[in-house]
Amino acid sequence: MEINIAACQIEVKPGHPDQNFEKIRSRVSEAKKNGDDIVIFPEMAVPGYIIGDEWENSAFINDCMSYNKRIAELSEGLVIVWGSVDADKQKVGEDGRIRKFNTAFTAQNGKIISRVCKTLHPDYREFDDDRHFYSSRKLAQDRGMSVRDYIQPLTVDINGEERKIGVSLCEDMWSDDYSIHPIEILLDNGAEFIINISCSPWTWRKNDKRHRVVRQRLQAQKAPFVYVNNTGVQNNGKNIFLFDGGTTIYNRDGSLRDMCREYRDDVIRTTLFSSRTDVIKRPVLSHERDQEELLSGLIYGLRKFFELIRASKAVIGMSGGVDSSLSSYLVSKALGAENVYGVNMPSEFNSDITKSLARRMAETLRLNYAIVPIQDVYEYSVEQLEQTEFTRLDASGVKKMLELSSVDKENIQSRDRGSRILAGIASALDAVFINNGNKSEVATGYTTLYGDVNGAVAPIADLYKTQVYDLCTYINSVEKKQIFPDELFDIPASAELSAEQDIEKGEGDPFAYEYHDKLLRAFIEWRLDPEDILKGYTDGSLSDTLGMDRNFLSEYFASDSLFVEDLERIWRLYKINYFKRIQAPPIIAVSKRAFGFDLRESQLGVYYTQNYKEMKRKLLGGD
Amino acid sequence: MEINIAACQIEVKPGHPDQNFEKIRSRVSEAKKNGDDIVIFPEMAVPGYIIGDEWENSAFINDCMSYNKRIAELSEGLVIVWGSVDADKQKVGEDGRIRKFNTAFTAQNGKIISRVCKTLHPDYREFDDDRHFYSSRKLAQDRGMSVRDYIQPLTVDINGEERKIGVSLCEDMWSDDYSIHPIEILLDNGAEFIINISCSPWTWRKNDKRHRVVRQRLQAQKAPFVYVNNTGVQNNGKNIFLFDGGTTIYNRDGSLRDMCREYRDDVIRTTLFSSRTDVIKRPVLSHERDQEELLSGLIYGLRKFFELIRASKAVIGMSGGVDSSLSSYLVSKALGAENVYGVNMPSEFNSDITKSLARRMAETLRLNYAIVPIQDVYEYSVEQLEQTEFTRLDASGVKKMLELSSVDKENIQSRDRGSRILAGIASALDAVFINNGNKSEVATGYTTLYGDVNGAVAPIADLYKTQVYDLCTYINSVEKKQIFPDELFDIPASAELSAEQDIEKGEGDPFAYEYHDKLLRAFIEWRLDPEDILKGYTDGSLSDTLGMDRNFLSEYFASDSLFVEDLERIWRLYKINYFKRIQAPPIIAVSKRAFGFDLRESQLGVYYTQNYKEMKRKLLGGD
């Protein structure tokens, strides 16, 4: 017989079960009016999912459990499936605290009738399920049962008929790398259809990958599949994750039946086991679609993050370069131009070109704008520091004057902008200020701590410099007017902190971004080592591996030894400059690996493997 | 028959297998000369343990595995047991990468004869074993075996006799909160003695706890127990963990036979199964012993951290307060006074008392010292900001002048010190500068981002303010001369950033540290919620729970409503100010829960449970 399903995509506010409960209550009451048989909510829809060690707060857990009970009480006349935390107060978890579960609850006739706990616990990137929750895998082991016997579909009476539902949570469907396949087990054990409730962040082309995974799960045994995910943002301090939703109902063969609109509360309804077979098209993958998703994700993420921290106004340094131009565009889209305060902070080293580009960008976006020069305090600081004399307070009385190098002076300017001006203005306006760094800079530490590393949020710090240009090009192509002027693409990327970085003479950053961005991606996202890179260089496969023009390397590097020197320079910069990332602001995560708690680092210094050293010796000779 | 054991406590350099291998090689060669039968090294002695996601670098893993082979080659004539990473390249881990194991290797006659992989994977605090490694628990499940059957002692021929050794790794012995007890299983399955190799950071009274745990493990079946741990520091970016070693050989009944000296390379040798039964005394626990351990740990941690980042000089702001006084003492002990540059940075708000206390401390410690006033730039900045006018670049042309509040002006001074002066001096001296914050400040955000939040390392940020005073008192009691003058204990703690914070009028920080420190500890370390606190306040148990004088609360809070107001103020400060901790420097972890990646947080805003609100309503009336 037919079953009427309502798949509810809701924004979950992590750490605020009261608000989440209210949203669930109102959706349940709509579902009742609509005559739905089963109404489904995402994983951890009550507490939120990425809440750090708040899971250790027992009062909070109890509070969530009391909301679970209140949700169950709403289930007169229909079945509710939702994700929340569950606890077994008689048992301890492996951290010695109350044993907790990441659970899919099912309620009917006012009572909780089933608690399915997650089997596969992701423990990579930002995921930490084993830190907080006990899996059904461990429960099976404790009872001396096989997982296959332990995982069973849930039997529910729907309209007088016994139905078997395969309830699963998020990772349970992404089982390719596991020795256990919960979806297949549920189907083998008699599930008529699958519900998967998730709290799954957006990543590049993940929706498309999910469609493929669902088809694969249903390969041996066909069955309808209902995937329910939340929207909103959740953060672990160092990263802000975007939840686009992507709630989807799949037909028996894994084809798409219906899908929620992204980044908003939405409900899709369907009648399972009816004779109708609706099929919607899978979105076609393209560079444009990727850019569109990226852009809407970044703007949504910024808006939601400001909501979260209860800020409405943003201050942003505008240098006239491409990074601050893109950032200010994103922020003005997220908050409205009236809430954005652009500041240009020239010193003697800033060119007329960039100063005028900054102003033009602020005009294009109709921002609030001010020019606050740093030259006076810069000069005063150089003088004050150069006149500072330390005296050893012992019998020797040794004296030491400070000497400032060119780099020391560059950093003084950056810190003056970040810590004196921007932080001062933000504080006076009761606003926060934006970090404009891109991923290439963050990776190589081509930034100044307490200078341009500062800010409350870093919207583009998960985009390499070349991706920044790409996104600007895309925005120009979809906006009615040209947002980013041609000059912005023509001037060299430069910090403009010294006479050596004079863009009017074509001098810019010490990077060939078209190569270095790809090298950095190989290090950061593909987790490759200099050994892998040097091997590729030696055997001629590197250009293909990185996706480079085959002539680039031989043209750019005049000799093997220059290639190796550059490789070691970049590896060293990436490794050593982690100390700056430790003190960097939250980054909106959009790549396969964002700096922060997604990619976990340690201050280790620089290391080269024995193989690397051997290959280098062979290539360059000597020892 | 007798077995000669050498338990080698070595400093492990995380991420530098080459250096670790050399150390192991030299210890093995000593053991051979000494005629030892078995030489034992700590867990993860080759790669290090806390290395972030460097575990995902396959070239690094291969490099470690090649060192494993080279260690095995050293095992002619004796048995070597050591910890390292192992990989099964035919299988994937649950992150889709090469499957890796946290393994205890045993080698004999030039070959690896056994690989025991860790059974219990800690996943709390800084530990993340499931993120990177596959446990023997999962291996057992995959093979359809019980863990009890899977975990077996290793059989080795020693001096012509078959011996059964129970090899285990770290958490395998700390099984109280697990459903599996590997040590007991090994003994049940015939192990004659236990080896536990660990990479276990120092925490408060942990050695004593370990002695108790070993006794408990041996309760049902007696057997000698060899515990080998490393020294050094390892970090996860946000926290620096201290490894004191504590390598111990236990007799069959769990009494102590011998123990390495702390924080240094050391070897203890013993003959197992001999008629001799040496017993050494367990160190007696006391407040003095705790302070001594804390002090030596902090100094060791600072010294090793500076070694790690290859820095030898430190700049430190000296306000004349107790925090900067203690920090400068620790740093001068760690690096030598000649490498420490103290800087006093007065503005109009700094009292003569604190200025002279700063100088006296620098004299006592014989530091390099300079006074660098911030008054001029402070005044300039206030004026420059107050004269800044934003213009809306649209048809409206709306203008907005900045207005600075008293708090805005306080923060300008702090940022000027942290970002203009200290960062400028550190950069000119090729030094790093020290963060002087204590845990009470870090917890409540009573700090200025880009001001006193700055620095390369925070030595005392895991000590509450009252603990800072305690440690100073202890240092005074053990040093030949008085380091911290009486006035330091007498003046009120104050930021001295405004006329309202005038210590000469007795005005200081808005905290009653003797209560608020304990409240914060309850939140941070005991993971309690305002609900728990309010419950204790209501039923009269709070003073006992916190360990307070019973009269304090009633004397300090004139009414219930003032108590609740204060409770909510502190909870709110703690929760909201996480944004500052995101950008804070590495903290040396010494408590049960340090801010950083030990305690994982999320920007969530403030939440009160239903129970809390109900209790508050009952207590105060109203709704």
From TrEMBL, chains A, B:
**Which Pfam families does the annotation name?**
CN_hydrolase (PF00795), NAD_synthase (PF02540)
Please list the residues that bind ATP.
317-324
Q: Which CDD domains match?
A: GAT_Gln-NAD-synth, NAD_synthase
Q: What class of enzyme is it?
A: ligase
What GO terms fall under cellular component here?
cytoplasm
Which residues of this UniProt protein bind deamido-NAD(+)? 411, 441, 580
Superkingdom to which the source organism belongs: Bacteria
What InterPro entries does its record include? C-N_Hydrolase, C-N_Hydrolase_sf, Gln-dep_NAD_synthase, NAD/GMP_synthase, NAD_synthase, Rossmann-like_a/b/a_fold
List, alphabetically, the HAMAP family matched. Answer: NadE_glutamine_dep
> Do the record's keywords include ATP-binding?
yes
Tell me the organism.
Answer: Rhodohalobacter mucosus
Task: Give the catalysed reaction(s), semicolon-separated.
Answer: deamido-NAD(+) + L-glutamine + ATP + H2O = L-glutamate + AMP + diphosphate + NAD(+) + H(+)
Function, as annotated: Catalyzes the ATP-dependent amidation of deamido-NAD to form NAD. Uses L-glutamine as a nitrogen source.
User: Under which name does UniProt file this protein?
Assistant: Glutamine-dependent NAD(+) synthetase
Molecular function terms from GO: ATP binding; glutaminase activity; NAD+ synthase (glutamine-hydrolyzing) activity; NAD+ synthase activity
GO BP annotations of the record are:
NAD+ biosynthetic process
Protein encoded by which gene: nadE
Residues binding L-glutamine, per UniProt: 124, 200, 206
Family, according to the entry, reads as follows:
In the C-terminal section; belongs to the NAD synthetase family.
Q: What pathway is this protein said to act in by its record? A: Cofactor biosynthesis; NAD(+) biosynthesis; NAD(+) from deamido-NAD(+) (L-Gln route): step 1/1
Coiled-coil segments: none
**Keywords of this protein's UniProt record, alphabetized?**
ATP-binding, Ligase, NAD, Nucleotide-binding
Active site residues of this protein:
43, 118, 170
- What EC identifiers does the entry list? 6.3.5.1
Task: Give the organism's phylogenetic lineage.
Answer: Bacteria, Pseudomonadati, Balneolota, Balneolia, Balneolales
PANTHER family, per database record = GLUTAMINE-DEPENDENT NAD(+) SYNTHETASE (PTHR23090:SF9), NH 3 /GLUTAMINE-DEPENDENT NAD + SYNTHETASE (PTHR23090)
